[in-house]
């Protein structure tokens, strides 16, 4: 603050201004602090349901599957739908798990449209490490909300995604809007 109580211009702070933009992502500290292989010992999708919903970003619990926010979101509201059972491939899931994953996905899309005003979605499952699955041992479906105006030059030039809402705030909004069964 200045002597008259006003705010200082950030450009006047210590250091030399440079061309870099800073995007603050404090939610990623859990991965930095976990070391180079945070998911080797424990499956995060088996661990999450045993914890508090707010802590693990769970927005809905079903009978055989649940939905939670992705800690590495492509966009705000990026959800994952996982069976409780530790199964790696879609064709190993039971008919009940497949049906509930589908039903939760449909509800998640409706909720995200109402909460985030998105225009569309990317849905997908990466099956196995070779296909790009970050957690290959536990089946999970991605629901990525998209907006007509979300394409910009950050991802292309700077390989950066701007996320305008904190994960906890987004989790609370989605969980509150989720219909009761």
Helices and strands in order, then pairings?
Blueprint: H1 29-34, H2 44-47, H3 53-56, E1 58-61, E2 65-69, E3 79-83, H4 95-116, E4 120-124, E5 141-146, H5 153-158, H6 167-177
Antiparallel strand pairs: 1-2, 2-3, 3-5, 4-5
Please, could you describe this protein's structure?
Helices cover 29% and strands 14% of the residues. It is globular, with a radius of gyration of 19 Å. The chain is built from six helices and five strands; from the N terminus they run αααβββαββαα. The protein has a single domain, classed as HIT-like (HIT family, subunit A). A hairpin with a 3-residue loop joins β1 and β2. Strands 1-2-3-5-4 form a five-stranded antiparallel beta sheet. It has 181 residues and is of the alpha+beta class.
Proportion of residues in helical segments? 25-40%
What gross morphology would you assign?
Answer: globular
CATH 2nd-level architecture: 2-Layer Sandwich
Q: State the end-to-end distance.
A: 51 Å
Per CATH, what is the topology? HIT family, subunit A
**Total domains:** 1
Instruction: Please report which band the strand proportion falls in: under 5%, 5-15%, 15-25%, 25-35%, 35-45% or over 45%.
Output: 5-15%
CATH class wording: Alpha Beta
Main beta sheet: strand number and arrangement? Answer: 5 strands, antiparallel
Within the largest sheet, what's the order of strands?
1-2-3-5-4
Low-confidence stretches: none
Defining key terms:
alpha+beta; HIT family, subunit A; 6 helices; about 180 residues; five-stranded antiparallel sheet; single chain
